[in-house]
Design a protein that fits this description.
The protein has 2 helices and 7 strands. A 7-stranded antiparallel beta sheet has the order 1-2-3-4-5-6-7. The protein has a domain of 115 residues.
């Protein structure tokens, strides 16, 4: 019996020596909120604050850029209005044979530039008929007097709206046989604060035009010579 007990004890020892001890080398602690490899709440808050500052800065920069673009565009528009009106007046002055400045804010010249109607039928014809519209008797001469009086074109201010003066143009109506007819006035530009014409010589006029829409102001000044004025 003792011999049998010794055999069991020896077998038990051999079994224990064969067992592989547990190793903890491959075990990892579950990642949790306090793990050093993640973000803490404080780090997240700091990141959000920095990102917010950057976004606010970008928003301000973009806002300033858009505002500057809008102001430039609006100033370009008001400048374009002033240039169009000034260039149109100069164009008619240069081709006229009569310049009249009845008042400081009114300019009247004889029109002798356009050829957009048939002079015999008064029908509109974009390419014209070879005779100036002001050549009422179709003899190749303009403003001879009887039968061919001057056809005035007028530039003056409409002050009906006290907050927005308008520079108006009134053209002769070549679509009728009546030599005294005029077309409906049209607006050349708005927000006019100054429109002054000064006759420096019988054939030379000085024009000053200022526009101001409340935020931007544009002022143009020029002199125009009537090449056919005696």
């Amino acid at each position: 019996m003792m011999e049998h007990w010794h055999d069991e004890l020896a077998a038990s020892k051999r079994l224990k020596t064969r067992e592989k001890p547990l190793s903890f080398d491959g075990w990892h602690e579950p990642r949790g909120i306090n793990s050093s490899s993640g973000f803490t709440l404080l780090e997240l808050l700091i990141s959000i604050a920095i990102l917010s500052i950057i976004m606010i800065g970008l928003h301000q920069v973009m806002g300033a850029a858009l505002s500057a673009h809008r102001q430039t565009t609006e100033k370009t528009e008001i400048l374009a209005q002033a240039r169009y009106a000034m260039e149109r007046m100069v164009m008619f002055v240069q081709e006229t044979d009569q310049i009249e400045v009845p008042s400081v804010d009114r300019l009247v010249v004889s029109e002798r530039l356009l050829d957009t109607y048939r002079n015999d039928t008064q029908f509109y014809q974009a390419e014209g008929d070879g005779y100036l519209d002001a050549d009422n008797d179709q003899d190749g001469l303009v403003n001879e007097g009887v039968g061919d009086p001057p056809d005035p074109i007028t530039f003056d201010l409409d002050k009906t709206d006290g907050n927005n003066w308008k520079l108006m143009e009134e053209m002769p109506d070549y679509g009728t046989s009546d030599l005294e007819d005029s077309r409906e006035k049209k607006v050349l530009c708005e927000h006019v604060t100054i429109f002054q014409c000064t006759l420096l010589a019988p054939n030379l006029v000085e024009i000053l035009l200022t526009l101001n829409d409340g935020e931007r102001e544009v002022s143009l000044k020029t002199r125009a010579r009537g090449f056919y004025v005696n």
